[in-house]
């Protein structure tokens, strides 16, 4: 088995939330679980911003679910969506 690159889209619970602080909290939460490859903040619209997080994880069953659950437990995270999964 190899590794997979997973692209996640993370939306905050509130438009007024400091997105930079949320980004730091998200990265700190997943660092023990996987390798963080790239982090971006994208404008969604109407003042809402999303965090695009790309991580590298082993191609094991349940690993992506584990990361999604860890991210959902971060205060300020409203929604976590897996957008893309690619073998590396």
Taken in chain order, the helices and strands follow as EHEEHE
Report the end-to-end length measured between terminal Cα atoms.
Answer: 11 Å
Based on secondary structure, the structural category is: alpha+beta
Number of strands: 4
Poorly predicted spans: none
Which whole number gives the mean pLDDT?
95
Topology (elements, then pairings):
Blueprint: E1 3-12, H1 19-30, E2 35-45, E3 48-58, H2 63-72, E4 77-87
Antiparallel strand pairs: 1-3, 1-4, 2-3
Top keywords for this entry?
Alpha-Beta Plaits, four-stranded antiparallel sheet, 88 residues, 2 helices, single chain, alpha+beta
Précis, in short:
It is built from two helices and four strands, in the order E-H-E-E-H-E. It has 88 residues and is α+β, with helices and mostly antiparallel strands. The chain starts with a strand and ends with a strand.
Could you characterize the architecture of this molecule?
This protein is α+β, with helices and mostly antiparallel strands. It has one domain: 2-Layer Sandwich (Alpha-Beta Plaits), CATH 3.30.70. 25% of the residues lie in helices and 49% in strands. It has a 4-stranded antiparallel β-sheet with strand order 2-3-1-4, covered by helices on one side. The longest helix is centred in the N-terminal third of the chain and has 12 residues.
């Amino acid at each position: 088995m190899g590794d997979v690159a997973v692209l996640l889209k993370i939306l905050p619970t509130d438009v007024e939330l400091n997105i930079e602080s949320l980004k730091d909290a998200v990265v700190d939460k997943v660092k023990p679980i996987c390798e963080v490859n790239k982090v971006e903040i994208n404008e969604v619209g109407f003042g809402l911003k999303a965090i695009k997080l790309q991580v590298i994880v082993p191609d094991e069953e349940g690993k992506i679910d584990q990361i999604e659950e860890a991210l959902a437990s971060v205060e300020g995270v409203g929604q976590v969506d897996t957008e893309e999964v690619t073998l590396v």
